[in-house]
Design brief:
- The structure is a single chain.
- This protein has helices spanning 15-26, 41-46, 48-67, 82-106, 181-192, 212-224, 275-278, 314-329, 358-364, 412-424, 429-433; strands at 6-11, 31-34, 110-112, 116-118, 123-126, 131-140, 144-146, 158-159, 173-177, 196-201, 228-231, 235-241, 244-249, 254-257, 259-262, 266-268, 301-303, 343-345, 351-355, 368-375, 389-396, 402-408, 454-455.
- With 456 residues, the protein is of the alpha/beta class.
- The chain has 3 domains: 6-145 and 267-329, 3-Layer(bba) Sandwich (FAD/NAD(P)-binding domain), CATH 3.50.50.60; 155-264, FAD/NAD(P)-binding domain; 343-455, Enolase-like, domain 1 (2-Layer Sandwich), CATH 3.30.390.30.
- The strands form 5 sheets. Strands 1, 2, 3, 4, 5, 6 and 17 form a 7-stranded mixed sheet that branches.
Length: 456
């Protein structure tokens, strides 16, 4: 008989925690998981899944507008109902939540609907149930939570990505603070739904950390779609008045909106976990320090996902959770390779990127060739639209190895998944050149860019 109630206790039932719990249980471990809100985590409940559904909703006006170029009559009496979108979105989230719960139960994982707090390195208090349990090992998978500038006067008038999915009505005017993927995605959503949309960012250009050409291309595309982007600026205060929220900026602008959304990054959700009781260390960012096997400084306590200082992406958390369970309970030696991770930004236009940017490649390699192509997608020709796709390939000229691929345009996220496989395998530019194109597609451009545009 074990001296503990459980072999593994998982705090947080998001993507990483659920995967770890299920896999550990299949290896015969006695597992429990605590979740204070809903099973599924940020991605399923208040992140990528509902956001992608809203992206789809926001694209229909563009489809309707393009239809006449293909001989369809101008749609009549087209209207949009915000409440229907939100209700249908909620139904889908409820369905996914039930699936996650069912999968845990089928794996014989016990679920506690409660906030959990560590009392020491083996003991957990289930706060909502006034119950104490013990576990041989503890896995922390509590994810992240939106940042808020608490020093801002009038900050209480703003909302975050947590609340944006539950607005009772569609705003007519909105300003979004931030320049990351959450900010640009929601700017595209609301602009597509006919909302006067402003984005304000303190930096020189949106999407810090992405390839510079891709950043500039998206900026211009968003502006051309009617989004008001305010760079090198930030809020100074927010006043609530009869005609809306008056947002004052450091550059002296006054912008009147119905909603203010903060999308200024996320921080690890560690508050109230009792890390200090268990002796778990965090770094200067507040994230939990872990080794290559997701182990913290405490021998029996592990952490995966956004609560650690690695890569804040749902598939990464899932891979980390699976690797942890394989290693600890499956007798395997599995480390997660955090390099060359394909990523999509569901901005409008969409971004798909994998590998190094031009700027990163220049720092790491002596001789770098850059291949680029920009063209109108075939679908936009008959409607007479001038929007373009941009593709870019970064190649080590000495070895011919492809270091990075970047796409901005329709279906970029779908294309980059398979580019991720190729780059992970170490594909060369010659491998791309030797592949016969699929015609007529946008993706064929990836294997027909023969001559470098320039040296990096």
């Amino acid at each position: 008989m074990s001296e503990f109630d459980y072999d593994l206790f998982v705090i947080g039932a998001g993507s990483g925690g659920v995967r770890a719990a299920r896999i550990a249980a299949t290896y015969g471990a006695k597992v429990a998981v605590a979740e204070e809100y809903r099973v599924g985590g940020t991605c399923v409940i208040r992140g990528c899944v509902p956001k992608k559904l809203m992206v789809y909703a926001s694209q229909f006006p563009e489809y309707f507008a393009d239809a006449s170029g293909y001989g369809w009559s101008e749609p009549q009496n087209i209207s949009f109902d915000w409440k229907t979108l939100i209700a249908n979105k909620d139904k889908e989230i409820d369905r996914l939540n039930k699936i996650y719960i069912s999968n845990l139960e089928k794996s014989n994982v016990e679920i506690f609907q409660s906030r959990a707090e560590m009392l020491d390195k083996h003991s957990i208090k289930l706060v909502g149930l006034d119950k104490k349990v013990t576990a041989e090992r503890i896995l922390i998978a509590t994810g992240g939570t939106p940042n808020i500038d608490y020093s801002l006067k009038g900050r209480e008038h703003g909302i975050t990505s947590n609340e944006i999915f539950h607005l009772e009505k569609k705003p007519e005017r909105i300003i979004i603070a931030g320049g990351g993927y959450i900010a640009v995605e929601f700017a595209g959503i609301f602009n597509g739904l006919g909302v006067e949309t402003h984005l304000i960012y303190r930096g020189e250009q949106i999407l810090r950390g992405f390839d510079a050409e891709v950043r500039q291309f998206l900026y211009e595309a968003m502006v051309n779609r009617g989004i008001h982007i305010h760079l090198n600026d930030n809020f100074s205060r927010i006043d609530k008045q009869d005609d809306g929220l008056h947002v004052f900026t450091l550059k002296g602008k006054e912008i009147v909106v119905d909603e203010v959304m903060y999308a200024i990054g996320r921080k690890p959700a560690v508050e109230g976990l009792g890390l200090e009781n268990a002796g778990v260390e965090t770094n200067e960012k507040g994230t939990i320090e872990v080794d290559a096997y997701s182990k913290t400084n405490v021998e029996n306590i592990y952490a995966v996902g956004d609560v650690t200082d690695r890569v804040a992406l749902t598939p990464v958390a899932i891979r980390e959770g699976h690797a942890f369970a394989d290693t600890v309970y499956g007798g395997k030696d599995v480390k997660v390779d955090h390099s060359c991770i394909p990523t999509a930004v569901f901005s409008q236009p969409e971004i798909g990127t994998v590998g190094l940017s031009e700027e990163e490649a220049k720092l790491a390699y002596d001789d770098v060739d850059i291949y680029t192509s920009s063209f109108r997608p075939m679908k936009k020709i008959l409607p007479g639209k001038q929007e373009k796709i941009f593709m870019k390939m970064v190649v080590d000229a000495d070895s011919d190895k492809v270091l990075g691929c970047h796409i901005i345009g329709p279906d970029a996220g779908e294309m980059v998944q398979f580019l991720g496989v190729l780059l992970k395998m170490g594909a060369t530019k010659a491998d791309f050149d030797a592949t016969i194109a699929v015609h007529p597609t946008a993706s064929e451009e990836l294997v027909t860019m023969r001559v470098p545009t320039r040296k990096a």
